[in-house]
Amino acid sequence: MVNQAESILKSSALSITSSRKKILDVFLSASTALAHQDIEKLADQYDRVTIYRTLQTFLDRGIIHTIPTTDNTIKYALCSDDCISSGHHHDNHVHFLCDQCGRTLCLDDVMIPAITLPNGYSMKEINMVVNGICKLCRA
Amino acid sequence: MVNQAESILKSSALSITSSRKKILDVFLSASTALAHQDIEKLADQYDRVTIYRTLQTFLDRGIIHTIPTTDNTIKYALCSDDCISSGHHHDNHVHFLCDQCGRTLCLDDVMIPAITLPNGYSMKEINMVVNGICKLCRA
DNA sequence: AGTATTTTGCAACAAAGTTGCATTCTACAG
DNA sequence: CTGTAGAATGCAACTTTGTTGCAAAATACT
Ligand SMILES: [Mn+2]
Ligand SMILES: [Mn+2]
Ligand SMILES: [Zn+2]
Ligand SMILES: [Zn+2]
């Protein structure tokens, strides 16, 4: 495949534009989840509004997912392949926030355990976020 | 006990002021977690800045806790009694966000299950948030 | 009651997010 | 390969959210 970003856009039936490619490239080369501000800096040739709208589009198509954090900053990360291809989004891994370096990580190997809700409640989505010290900061 | 709000303030060694009492009363009579904006409306005789500072004070003392949400709005809720009295905060129950009515609830009876992190990661705090339809909306 | 200390309100500001609209770009038909 | 409809973008203006410094007011304590 010549261009990974383009192929993601194609399989989501999105038109291929330079800003979308750039923002996808930013995600593809990032090792962590990104805040809106991170993306603004890494794709600073594009307008802030365009980034807002592009992220929303990617969320709608299930290309990226959000990670809720305790400090009122949303982080965004690429969905894994099967997450994208399966039509609707189902993110079932735990997320980790390092209190020291501030990085947010998808722990793709750590599944969210099942829980039992009280009677009358139905679950659509579940998120598990762990704060602590990451591998790199620990070393 | 004459006044629950006052007694909470006293046991946290905070001076008793009318805004703190009012904001505590708002929490005490709320059945759900509250956004900052909710509190602004329910205690609208006080300045927005005072509410920011009061919530921060309550967080510092472990009187309230935050609930991270997927839509970038922090919700605040009273901590349970043992949560307050034990000195430092340890919130170990699941939170529920209703996609229909928008309410955020502490599921005090649903404990967060344990997970195993990859080698090198240490856990300080854990949050579990479930989205779905709540009991009241289901009925 | 008097006073040191804390808390509050206000103003000014900074940052984050939204909206309408004119311009530019993309996909696609012909 | 063009022409064009529709989509995406940039810009400006705006709203909302959160922060800071400081003077005035309130609280706790002597
Ligand atoms: Mn993830
Ligand atoms: Mn709670
Ligand atoms: Zn770290
Ligand atoms: Zn509901």
Detail the topology: elements first, then pairings.
Two copies of one chain form a homodimer.
Chain A: H1 4-11, H2 18-28, E1 34-35, H3 36-42, H4 48-60, E2 64-67, E3 75-78, H5 81-85, E4 93-98, E5 104-111, E6 122-133, H6 135-138
Parallel strand pairs in A: 4-6
Antiparallel strand pairs in A: 1-3, 2-3, 4-5
Bound molecules: manganese (II) ion (2 copies) and zinc ion (2 copies).
Residues 98, 100-101, 103, 134, 136-137 of chain A line the site of one zinc ion.
The first copy, chain A, binds a DNA duplex (30 and 30 nucleotides) through helix 2 and helix 4.
Descriptive tags:
DNA-binding; Arc Repressor Mutant, subunit A; 35% helix; binds zinc ion; homodimer; three-stranded antiparallel sheet; globular; 139 residues
Task: Explain the overall architecture.
- The structure is a homodimer of 139-residue chains.
- The first copy, chain A, has one domain: Winged helix-like DNA-binding domain superfamily/Winged helix DNA-binding domain (Arc Repressor Mutant, subunit A, Orthogonal Bundle).
- Chain A has a three-stranded antiparallel sheet with strand order 1-3-2. Chain A has a three-stranded mixed sheet with strand order 5-4-6.
- In chain A, strand 4 and strand 5 form a beta hairpin.
- Chain A is built from six helices and six strands, in the order H-H-E-H-H-E-E-H-E-E-E-H.
- Chain A has 139 residues and is of the alpha+beta class.
- The interface between A and B is large, with 39 and 39 residues.
- The site of one zinc ion has 7 residues of chain A, from helix 6.
- Chain A binds a DNA duplex (30 and 30 nucleotides) through helix 2 and helix 4.
